[in-house]
Design brief:
binds 6-O-phosphono-alpha-D-glucopyranose, Rossmann fold, 20 helices, Glutamine Phosphoribosylpyrophosphate, subunit 1, domain 1
Length: 609
């Protein structure tokens, strides 16, 4: 989702700004732009619709040079994907601003600004913000004070950065919602929406808090809080690698990340098991105390992470821990009957999802025994806001559609279920059995990846399809949901998942020879039930594409394709059966020729609600 970078340098800033935008690309966006204050003290702007490469091309044709600048990747909310709507927005030729987030009262402010004689060149809410800062400058306020005054008038959730042609060595930035980081070297200063953009210049950074306004003047940076009091924010050191991600032998990051899963899960498990046991401090220093106080779990997440939560519910309830799983955007606006002893667990690969953050805040307001996040980004907001954190340690995920972070999050949640099982009377033999299975995960994932060629062949059947159904039962229903989500995200085929037992309550009406029906069929307690459901599909002329245990008894025929998944214990089966569905959607997307790593309209880090 929208990304901001900015710099006050003592040499040309354009290279840093462009590289910063490239490093924020993975978040998802549809246009990009940059403003630089040139050596004559004028604002120079370039904006393009499409990829950062388009902007780079434009800058190669007409370079912008200057030591201070701001840049932005835009993910459209208000106003279509057009160059006039791309940021930075400029007021009066002197003031340029980029913004991430949403200003809810933009209509009211726009009306007043019209009356004040200001003209608009875009349909965005951001242009209202730059006008508002300008109006305060007109009243004689200093740039930072004008930004603070504007913040007080804006409703919504946003982060912004602004430069003024009259002050070529200065940049002012502010946060009220989406993250904004400040990085400094001895004589230069930088801002960015996430650490990836800062890594080429520094690992040290400070996280602005809500209400903060930071005034960057080279080495001198002053942070003031919403009341105008000077504050200092903790200087953190990033542990992330500064290398920009490299595709290696793969065609897409998604393919690379699917293939990294055995290693990713091995890294997730590193240092988390001792002998036959899960180490509780993998979840944080306070884990034992909080787990002792936990009576039930409430999992909150969005998208793929929500599906990980739905799988975890099966594991938690198996070990006797009541569990509810909530979509964050619904949870945050619903009334709740809070229950004592609730451990709220958020799941988020990015750690920045606005709805999940707001839902966590709401849960904490209700009173909880503790909060735990399962996350892949150590420097993220959810990690900072939670009592406990289980870091998945699977390295940066670049593909917008989550893959390795999903299997690693499920792995972490299985460890959580084991840690809580001890408190529910499950003996050490149970934990030892599941830990033994968990240790086989990397090899079992590797074996599932061996299905790729066969799956690529199977994918041919989907190239001309508009719709698909995905079926599963038990803990594999959420895996079917994830399979359907992956297919729609990256191939744009409409796909729906159903608990197979629900088929006859509606979706069966859709089934004919043109409707591919994909099912995951591990050899578990529900296999005979699932087979009956699959027969219902066959009887209506449906085409079945099955990922099945060899012992399931499912047999190939003219209308049934079966690919065997090596036998796995039911404790880890959902994690393994994820892989063939990821590979299927990837290969269908290749056939469709879509932008696999950056699917249209989607974002990796969803920092607006
Ligand atoms: C976006 C991403 C998904 C992700 C979801 C939740 O939609 O494209 O891959 O599952 O956000 O994100 P989170 O970072 O909270 O897991």
């Amino acid at each position: 989702m929208c990304g901001i970078v900015g710099a006050v340098r003592n040499s040309d800033a354009s290279g840093f700004l462009l590289e910063g935008l490239r490093r924020l690309e993975y978040r998802g966006y549809d246009s990009a732009g940059v403003v630089i204050i040139n050596q004559d003290g004028d604002l120079e702007r370039a904006r393009t619709v499409g990829k950062v490469a388009e902007l780079e091309h434009a800058l190669n044709q007409a370079p912008l040079m200057g030591m201070t600048g701001i840049a932005h990747t835009r993910w459209a909310t208000h106003g279509g994907v057009t160059e006039p709507n791309a940021h930075p927005h400029i007021c009066n030729g002197t003031l340029a601003l980029v913004c991430n987030g949403i200003v809810e009262n933009h209509e009211t402010l726009r009306q007043k600004q019209h009356e004040a004689g200001l003209a608009f060149t875009s349909q965005t809410d951001t242009e209202v913000v730059v006008h508002q800062v300008y109006l305060h400058l007109q009243k004689g306020l200093d740039l930072a004070d004008a930004v603070r005054a504007t913040m007080k008038e804006l409703e919504g959730s946003f982060a912004l950065a602004v430069v003024h042609a009259g002050e070529p060595d200065r940049l002012v930035a502010a946060r009220q919602g989406p993250p904004l980081l400040l990085g400094r070297t001895d004589d230069e200063s930088f801002i960015a929406s996430d650490i990836n953009a800062l890594l080429p210049v520094t690992r040290q950074y400070q996280v602005l808090e809500n209400g903060d306004v930071v005034d960057l003047r080279g080495a001198n940076c002053l942070i003031k809080d919403r009341t105008g009091v000077v504050v200092d924010r903790l200087v953190r050191t990033s542990s992330q690698s500064g290398d920009s991600a490299d595709l290696g032998e793969y065609r897409h990051f998604m393919q690379k990340e699917i293939h990294e899963q055995p290693r990713a899960v091995a890294d997730t498990l590193e240092g988390r098991l001792r002998g036959d046991q899960v180490l509780e401090d993998s979840f944080g220093r306070e884990a034992t105390r909080i787990f002792d106080a936990t009576r039930q779990v409430c999992i909150i997440a969005c998208g793929t992470s929500y599906h990980a939560g739905l799988v975890a519910r099966h594991w938690l309830e198996y070990v006797g821990v009541p569990c509810e799983v909530e979509v964050a955007s619904e949870y945050r606006y619903r009334r709740h009957a809070s229950r004592e002893g609730t451990l709220v667990v958020t799941i988020s690969q990015s750690g920045e999802t606005a709805d999940t953050l707001a839902a966590l805040e709401e849960a904490k307001r209700q009173g909880v025994a503790g909060s735990l996040v399962v996350c892949n980004v150590p420097e993220s907001s959810l990690v900072r806001e939670s009592d406990l954190a289980f870091m998945t340690h699977c390295g940066p995920e670049i593909g917008v559609a989550s893959t390795k972070t999903f299997v690693s999050a499920m792995t972490g949640l299985l460890l959580l279920a084991l840690a809580l099982s001890r408190r529910r009377g499950f003996d050490s033999g149970f934990e030892a059995h599941v830990v033994h299975q968990i240790r086989t995960l990397p090899a079992a994932l590797e074996s599932a990846l061996g299905m790729e060629t066969a799956i690529a062949n199977m994918a041919q059947a989907f190239g001309d399809k508009q719709n698909a159904l995905f079926l599963g039962r038990g803990a594999h229903f959420p895996i079917a949901m994830e399979g359907a989500l992956k297919l729609k995200e990256i191939s744009y085929i409409h796909a729906e998942a159903y608990a197979a037992g629900e088929l006859k309550h509606g979706p069966l009406a859709l089934v004919d020879e043109r409707m591919p029906v994909v099912a995951v069929a591990p050899n578990d307690l529900l296999i005979e039930k699932l087979k009956s459901n699959l027969e219902e599909v066959r009887a209506r002329g449906g085409r079945l594409y099955l990922f099945a245990d060899p012992a399931s008894g499912l047999i190939e025929s003219e209308d049934v394709q079966v690919l065997h998944v090596a036998p796995v214990d039911s404790a880890i089966a959902p994690i393994i059966y994820t892989v063939p569905l990821q590979l299927l959607s990837y290969h269908v997307a290749l056939i469709k020729g879509t932008d696999v790593d950056k699917p249209r309209n989607l974002a990796k880090s969803v920092t607006v609600e």
